[in-house]
Automatic annotation (TrEMBL), chain A:
The chain crosses the membrane at residues 12-31, 43-65, 71-90. The keyword DNA damage does not apply. Keywords: Cell membrane, Membrane, Transmembrane, Transmembrane helix. It is found in: Cell membrane. This is Cytochrome C oxidase subunit IV family protein. It holds the Pfam family COX4_pro. It is a multi-pass membrane protein. GO terms for cellular component: plasma membrane. It comes from the Bacteria.
Amino acid sequence: MAHAQGQQHPVSLYLKIWGLLFVLSTLSYLVDYFHFQGYFRWSLILVLMLLKAGLIVSIFMHMAWERLAMVYAILVPPLCLLVLVGLMAAEADYVFSTRGIFLGQ
Amino acid sequence: MALPSASPPEDPVPPPPDTLVAGWKSIATDWASDQDVFKRVPWGKAMMWIFLLSDTFIFTCFLTGYMSVRISATAPWPNPSEVFALTIGGVKIPLILIAIMTFVLISSSGTMAMAVNFAYRRVRGKCAALMLATAAFGATFVSMQAFEWSKLIAEGVRPWSNPMGAAQFGASFFMITGFHGLHVSVGVIYLCIVAFKVLRGDYERSGNYQIVEIAGLYWHFVDLVWVFIFAFFYLW
């Protein structure tokens, strides 16, 4: 029973994830090092970021072994933040255009 | 005065197996069970998760604010690749300090994960040693951040202006990395306290090492936030 005395997983699993995180971080550093630009750069950054975040949350923070009621209570509310990001991106675009008009820049 | 003979149980009594269904159905049954929702999750761990959820909102607000000022800035945004470059041995390497800081923080997450493992196996010495190693990595990270701040301040970067371009760069940088660095510093103190209590045998007496996993959750979250800051602030 895993939860009777907390989460028990082999140390080798943690070492593998650790190694994987090193590889992914190196790749995201190389994105900058090789000066990739535009949508290719942004999608690489996002994919590597989400892979790293997923590994940390699911394995290191043991989310993969929690009950679904808990997993959804923690992981679903942050999705609201995507709405905030969308609204603010639209607003910032508008602010940028008005600055162009009124400040003549 | 009579002392209670046994300390109260740390975990609630697990519900009978027939009430614990799996899969999608478990969401409805757990939330509708009229008792504790997070079954077999100790309250300390559930509360840490809820705290981390609120912290997620705080950091996302900072990153969203940064996104807004970066989109709406009319002056060119300073190129982080050049701003955070270091000259080592006569060669200018872009973003190298931030890359090293990333590796230091990931290493600290690895040692923390193993510390949790040894805590549940009740290997106190190794658990405390790994926690102190985690704290040492954290302290290294904060020191490198202090170096980075001093370098940028010496180059004239201020929250209201900087010589490289858009004035909003300084405000975003000091706000986001400052708040993250504060989290790391608090985490280092937290880990040292828990490691000390592990060594002293506090959790051996109570028979409950959950607190190590809870402290670990906080530490992994600090690493998680750095993943997002690294992607959006330094690489974008």
